[in-house]
Amino acid sequence: MLVRLSPVLSAVTLSCTLAASAALWASSAQAQSPAKQCADEWKSAKAGGTVPAGQKRADFIKDCRDKLAAQPGAAAPATPAAAAPANPLRPAPTAPAASTAAPAPGAADAAAKPKKLMSPGMIAFHEREKKCGEEWRANTDQIKAQTPGITWPKYLSACNKRLKAAGQ
Known about the structure:
With 168 residues, the protein is mainly α. It has 2 domains: 7-85; 120-165, no CATH class. It is 61% helix and 0% strand. The protein has helices at 7-30, 34-48, 57-70, 105-112, 120-146, 152-165. Helix 2 (34-48) crosses helix 3.
């Protein structure tokens, strides 16, 4: 059964959609990135003549970004409406909680996502690739003299075929 919307209902739906889009656009326009904030500070400092003598723009921006990063919540939007994600279909990224102790470098990677196991064929290929790499590094000049115009990708392909045929 075909359902037709009345013109009034269509107009209401359209106006709600436009209002929501405008609200999202306005809130994202109000929130400035640290780069924009620092660039604005540079412009105002330069116009006011308060830039230290000899300081370059890049140094000023770096110091400004460091200063903003040191302030908790300084780069965060001021209003809850500004915290709305730019894409309503994608959830907003959450900031990690500040911790007092730094975790070990490998601990975060291991806990984040388990690695996908490689197939036996890929494991064998990686072993052949390592052997071919060792041969290439040890005999590059000799290989290039025997086969002019050969490159690593071409050599890897030929070496892989040779080792695979040999049963490795």
